[in-house]
Records
---
Amino acid sequence: MASFHFLLVLTLCIFSVSADDVFVSIDCGSSDMHTDENLIPWNGDDLYINNGVNQMVPPANSISRVMDTLRVFMNRKKNCYSIRNFRSGRVLVRASFYYGNYDKKSSPPTFDLQFDGNNWVTVQTSSTGYIYYEAIYVMKQDYISVCVAQTQPNQFPFISALEVRGLDSYMYSYFDENYPLFLVKRVAYGANATVRYIDDIYDRIWTPATAGKGLIEVKSDAIFSAPGLGDNPPPAVLLSAVTAISPSESILLNMGFPPVEVPVYINWYFSEVTQLEANQTRSFMLYKDGQPFYQALSPPYGNFTEIISRNYTVSSNTTFSLVPTNDSTLPPLINAMEVFLIGDALTDGTNSKDVKGLVSLQNAFKDLQDWSGDPCLPVPYTWDWINCSNDATPRVTALYLGSFNLSGTLPDFSSMDALETIDLHNNSLYGTIPDFLGTFPDLKELNLADNQFTGSIPASLAKKNDLKFEVTDNPDLCTSGKSCQSSGNPTMRSSGGKKKNKLPVILGTTISIFVVFWAIVGVFVILQHRRKTVAIAALSEQHGGAQTNVFKVNMEEQVNVDQTNRQGHANVHQDRDLY
């Protein structure tokens, strides 16, 4: 169902306003600062992004200084510009693209455009001319991210310019601020040239729409101050208009709707171009698909009337026209129009606790600072080294930072309490293993192998029996629970590096000596036994002695052997001297 607002903006109510303090113009692919022909200051993009390759359009295809440079992205799922230090509010964001055959392949690419974790549009570049896309929305964070994402092999995303303009809070406010507006067209009827900054302090681009068949262009002789109500159309677009040739003829408006049904937000602007005589009347109605759509209106002179239609579903088959009323002596006219598609609901982004933890990691490790934009959204364009849940406000469930050339101590990222997997193997991380790693309630796998951690395993980790925990090849890491500084008895350490586990060597050596020693003792005892047996036998024959002496000698010999087992090598030598 359509919703309307009728705004009659009187000159007496007009007051001068200034745009919000946000006015950012980024010349992508350039490192220079310059001011263009519209007095817009431009900055290079080095402060807003770390990756990508700067390219230039061949001189033969040059159209402007800003459009002649571009930044191309040949790796990663998505690459994002991050513009920070804003206060939340309503903004206009515009992204521009000019292929210009920079790569001499005559193959303009197609890719996706995103903002703040939301899908925006599929960019279809062309070999000739540049295109731009514009979104108006209320920020949910204090920063803006604009990303391009590769969707087809060997079609590399690029961007030529990125602009952010602050809007006053009352502008474009007649719709739910949880939804963005995507520009379809913004036209200034009867204008001789494009209207933008400085004529429009918000730097909206108003494209001239010349009179078609059955229409004429007219100019206004009214004097306007800067409008301060409604959506603040610049006076420059109210000073021209198109009308029908005769009072009985209608104006069929070219709306530019897509072929599929979509919800739209439309602004129409009307202002009388001349002071009417007492016997003159300009009165007309807005029709949709040949039926009255809005009540009759008569535009004011020196002021403007704005009609806003929102949340109405249309398609390329939908028509709008301005039809004169029966009592009108003058034909209908129109000065300007804006048409927007209403996008899907804005996401809240990745859970703020996970964002906090990821920022800590990026602050600690320079190699991670190339990633920006929302970590998890839009799906499937997560950062390359994380996994995320499928929740409306996604959680980061895995960190895959193995072999990322990270060097330093681990920062505190304990706020990421939905983590199930942490893989940090094969880096140059050092210091003690942080105790907070054992506090993640859902952690199932922790890989710290091939680093330089020292100290002992935290008790919080040692108690997690269901954790798959890998710490091999950390040479100075204690894994036995004993102090790494203790001496005397050997300490169990993780394998790898220069410091190997010495306990197996010591045990092997001790066991070998023990076996050799007792083999020698055994041979010696057998020989002694044989000698004594012969001697006793001889004495028995001579003296008739009893066999009990033989038993006694053997018993004493066994006692000496048992004492040798208990007293060690010194007793062995002593017993040998006895014999």
---
Amino acid sequence: MAAKSDGAAASAGPGPEGVAGGARGSAGGCGEAAPGPRYELRDCCWVLCALLVFFSDGATDLWLAASYYLQGQHTCFSLTLLFVLLPSLVVQLLSFRWFVYDYSDPAGSPGPAVSTKDSVAAGAAISTKDSAGAFRTKEGSPEPGPQPAHSSASAYRRRCCRLCIWLLQTLVHLLQLGQVWRYLRALYLGLQSRWRGERLRRHFYWRMLFESADVSMLRLLETFLRSAPQLVLQLSLLVHRGGAPDLLPALSTSASLVSLAWTLASYQKVLRDSRDDKRPLSYKGAVAQVLWHLFTIAARSLAFALFASVYKLYFGIFIVAHWCVMTFWVIQGETDFCMSKWEEIIYNMVVGIIYIFCWFNVKEGRSRRRMTLYHCIVLLENAALTGFWYSNRNFSTDFYSLIMVCVVASSFALGIFFMCVYYCLLHPNGPMLGPQAPGCIFRKASEPCGPPADAITSPPRSLPRTTGAERDGASAGERAGTPTPPVFQVRPGLPPTPVARTSRTEGPVIRIDLPRKKYPAWDAHFIDRRLRKTILALEYSSPATPRLQYRSVGTTQELLEYETTV
């Protein structure tokens, strides 16, 4: 894997060239770029609300487990505590593994070769192995530069600081607070990008996006390993006991439900914010997604709880069968999220768990048919599970059972309603039934969007033959000194009118020797931590905001086809 920055212009918008802008709004191939995004106060409030949801979910579960222990209900205590500790340990190990790689000294390990040529700096070249330690900024200096030679005292202070960081991170993860640390770090980096000048603002904003991506992935894994089973367990106990629910189990159930809905919406928002080829998700759309998932997961979990309160064995068989079918459905869709085959298989298994409870898009393209099919299957399953439970009740005297059936149906209907509100009114690409927004993400562009100046236009499948008269006319024109068109000329495609193109923008372009992953997958520089460290080092040392350009497979095929045709 190699990343290269050579000063060539590249488009920051979507297209076959696989170009990813360094930050949303950087200069690219869609007219004059709007200023880069800024960290706003509502972003800070969103993170604080995420912390509140995290603490409320964990605190209510632990409080409920302690209550079960004091009441002598050891089975309920064991299951509740198991669904709290086991997922938390898995997530903390993964988070600490990421920390070890990010803060490890790569001096003795081979890294990707990186070369940079900045056209603004008159062709000055810098090379580095990996990224850590390649470029540093002096303490308090606004501009980055090469790291000067350090004395033994400063080296000793650095080693002490490094040891303190390792001890602090070890303690944080032992206390099961890895996600809290990452939330606070993302909040700190976002505020730094707001307070600092333009030179350092983009660097802190990039790091904030990376940290937000990490914590959103960790929270997604944790909620569906902890909150989802906890929700079904507590609902099953409430239904089995009957009567008015106790306050503490109701609080735990509500916190788990809100945590699931919030995590899904937050994951989608961070994913869209990280990709410059997609429009960002507004907070109105995020709230609509929270309500959508809140009511659909509530109906789904309540149907599970009703059925499990009567048919415990058959409920386990149903869950395993549903997970196997959904995992196979995801695998046959050939997802491309991870960097290795085994990581992809594990990811597909986790998505299979998510599909037990709610819809989760994992394949690029229009997902309307797949989403409709999934919700039809879920509707039939909810009706069947609730119907089997209701068939064991006394129809004539049990008014409580009829209320539960109505709650399941109305909750699912409300979830579908908010899903329609999101897609019809609040989707980033525009209303589903109205005109769709253009692919260019720069809304303040002063010129129409077109391919970048150095983009390769697709050649025709075949070239027209030249008649003898045309050859004679061309020879006569050449002898007369008249200008002639070039020999190899590609006809412009649609639209027939000339498309205004932006002038070639000089600046650093980081070229990544990998094909770009398609949405809804994360870009490789968010998944591959070695590549992330390299990009951060180049971005920190560059006087201008670099753009990322992934390898385009289609371009190579087009060039070979052109040469063969000629």
---
Amino acid sequence: MGKKGKKEKKVKGADKTAAKMEKKVSKRSKREEEDLEALIAEFQNLDAKKTQVTETSCPPPSARLNASLSAHPEKDELILFGGEFFNGKKTYLYNDLFFYSIRKNSWVKSEIPNPPPPRCSHQAVVVPQGGGQLWVFGGEFASPNGEQFYHYKDLWVLHLATHTWENIKAPGGPSGRSGHRMVLSKRQLLVFGGFHESTRDFIYYNDIYAFSLDTFSWSRLAPSGSAPSPRSACQMTSTPDGAGVIIYGGYSKVRVKKDVEKGTIHSDMFLLKQDEKWSWSRLSPSGSKPPPRSGFSLAVGPAGRAVLFGGVCDEEEEELLEGDFYNDLYLYDTAKNRWFPGVLRGTKSEKKKRRRGKKAGSEDEGAETKEEEEEAVARGPTEVIKEIVTEDGTVMTIKEVIPGAQEEDEEDEEEEEEDDSASAPMVEPCPRSSAMATVRQGKLYLYGGMFEVGDRQFTLSDFYCLDLHKMDRWEVLVEMDPKTQEWLEESESEEEEEEVEEETKGAEGEEEESEDSEDDQEEEEEHPMVQEGETVTDYQIRTEQYWIKLARANMGPNAKDKKVAKVAVAMAKVFYEDQ
């Protein structure tokens, strides 16, 4: 009894500390949020003027991250809502709504009266009742300078059959937060974790709430057992029977000194299950777990497998913070409690299987899946370093994970030498974090996200698709070149104002821009030109000293010779391919 009483006191003490911290954060951030509420109200007033639903065919959505991408429960459509974009000076938040037709490969922008205000890092879940519903909870709004935050605690439902938004006002729900996770478990929405941040304080959560789709009411669960530590941005997947959820990974940070914060990337796993009562238990999965990371994308694939893509692992060295970004794929079998890397087979390997007489049937499916998992674990991915040089000279160094090569016999190797197309590298999404992902009809769809190079952030708008049954290759639906990214440095503010003034000058300004473009073309022509019939290797060898000199000028005298040489090779290649 004594031990039990002590344990209960410890739990109560921890709850009391968390409550105090939450009250402290809430008090300090109240003034900030009141300022932002006025800005949010302006957006809502503008949206309130819209009285009719309008749908317009449009190009793909603009570059963004931390939006939601959901599969329509009844149609071959995807639904993209909200998100954020940062160009180095200003943060943009969105509440636009897009529908992507899978069959037509086309986008439609849907403007519906009285939508949720702009937000990012929210959660959206589709429910197949009433012609289909999209439920949205929480998220955050940021001031244009990105220094103030407002965390939502509102709940919305988009009725897909009637194209109407409805704000569900139900008391007793989670506090305002972003980075939380929400999934459908039978007839209720389960919300776990997340964080709340103000200018000076932050708090991470590990509480869990349930929203009943029958009674439209919130309840806070009090599971027994050892719960995950507070965190945000974890993977949360329903169990195959729908009676519980699995939590993997996530991110949190603590303040170790007054102005020093330390981040933690979690890689543990937990099961929350309801028998008679809810209870937490720790999982120890088999197979090959993903290396620690945060900002990964997640979706639920065929047979209830959890799909994890990309992410970033931040490495702290003294005062520098550098991130290694990933583009690898991992699958988690919820029934077997097993991780394995998703290795692309390639279209050529499928042909070899057919030539060898392997039959694809329901009887062999289990054995083939097992063999696939074992081979994936044994092969493992290969990590390579890729460098891209932007037009302004910024060098992007990104890690890329190339799937392990399949074993090939000598006859196939000879065929590859004869067929150049077969040996060409497969197209893959570049490494990134905070991308949007969902699965529809066994296909994984991946949109946008971001990666960083130094202090510069590249926000993406490319769009990919991968058949999770075939696992052969990524299909590019929307292509984007990261070298064209706009980035405004703080020191460019005066230049930006001058550009705005020039735009107001009308035709005179246009003439000046055309002259500038001609000057740029003249500068490009100063680079050594590619000779007719010259290969990229020949060109790099012939112009090596020129590009080394240029790279040295861009990188400074303290850059290492080896690094300069790598950048010079990359710059020469970029120029060669542009010709």
---
Amino acid sequence: MEVSSSIFAINIHHCSSFFLGLLLLLASALSLANAKTHYHDFVIQATPVKRLCKTQNSITVNGMFPGPTLEVNNGDTLVVNVVNKAKYNVTIHWHGVRQIRTGWADGPEFVTQCPIRPGGSYTYKFTIQGQEGTLWWHAHSSWLRATVYGALIIHPPEGSSYPFSKQPKRQTALLLGEWWNANPIDVVREATRTGGAPNSSDAYTFNGQPGDLYNCSSQDTVIVPIDSGETNLLRVVNSALNQPLFFTVANHQLTVVGADASYVKPFTTSVLMLGPGQTTDVLISGDQSPSRYYMAARAYQSAQNAPFDNTTTTAILEYKSSTCAAKNCSSNKPIMPPLPAYNDTATVTTFTKSFRSTGKNFVPTDIDENLFFTIGLGLNPCPPNFNKSSQCQGPNGTRFTASMNNVSFVLPSNFSLLQAHHQRIQGVFTTDFPANPPRKFDYTGNVSRSLFSPVAGTKLYGLKYGSRVQIVLQDTSIVTPENHPIHLHGYDFYIIAQGFGNYNPRTDPSNFNLVDPPLRNTVAVPVNGWAVIRFVADNPGVWLMHCHLDVHITWGLATAFLVENGVGELQSIESPPEDLPLC
């Protein structure tokens, strides 16, 4: 059901003349007059799902795995009523949506809301503002997002077209995922009990299907149609829980045109790398001999000596032309593409450095908050009351942990952080998250064991409305260096630089890109390296920043920003909805 929106606000800055202002006013009014409100019902429920010859009672939305694809236009509003008929607490996060003033709809459990308890419900309502491309939604409670996820496609405003030289004839969302021959909640609970690393997944998937290279899977392999001569848009999402992934298509080049619902200057590549949480939009042309070609994805594994799922998932790009029909292409064995080596950081670096944003950029230049966050793993000693053989199965009888600036983030359990902030409830969190590491050290060198054990706490960092923020995100070699996909809720940010080794504040700023840096919501911080991001804190609320490898956020690799209200209603967070779940 869709209804036209009747409420809109228009604000025009810096018009050079009355007539220009009038034209902009009319254009904005026309665009917003076409905006719609989309209503959806999500029922969280247990559903039998058979993969790899085995049936699991998986948690799904509306009995679908993956869940439903939501399609909107820029400027539209979504109203999604979530009813929890499963046995677990659940929330839904709308990954990458700015949620301007609507932080109560962001979704991370105990951050912006208490969970929806079994038998409960909650309605998420928010408007898409100034974003176009591919985002996605997923559960943000424990490891439920292993099966509770789906695509969120944002088209240009009605009557507008894509800023591509050739408009795509077809569009296909490709969600890359991970599958366990077990209940993912049991997997993470067992790891939490033992203190060791969780079991690796048993398969990767395209739109929930493992593909031809796995047992009992070939009959359901995803088919992606293409015709000779046409150009199609592939919307690739890394929905995997814990694994960055390479993606490629046999014999076809990919033209990257967008990422994280922002357009980029087009560039051509044969391979993508997406960290969990990231999206990439690519154009693909039907310029090869009509046949069948494998699309393939497998792990990019940057951590040293860490177990991982080394299998390969496939879908099939299948030509539908009359020539192919005459040749009976559907019976042809698909052509397999080469894939980078699992640890091919050079290919990742080349790909990552190719992103440049389009259009007018608003990169902050004068910085109010200059922050430096170390990120990485850690090891806690076995507590005296724990059984060392069964509860301390990390390296040398320890328990895994993770941190930012030596603080391992602990979620509250009686209130959400946003609720505690809004109601001024004391004792739920503090605002003393350090702006810099408590101790300076050789971050990517041989780190002293005295730095392996972080301090646990619910520490937030406070930001004034409108402050201009720069964050250096520095990987560390504590336990093992690793490529970390760091996601910031409620914001897009500019990635102005990346590099390897320890960030040098004297020399590295000379390489900052302040002209056309990519605008993302998730940055893949290089293994044994660093990334610098900038944004303006123009969205009041409490916003989680965390590693999107779910095993790492489970261990505490997170923090949150508390952004104060500005002046007046339009710079203040909305009041909480009446049906906001209680803890």
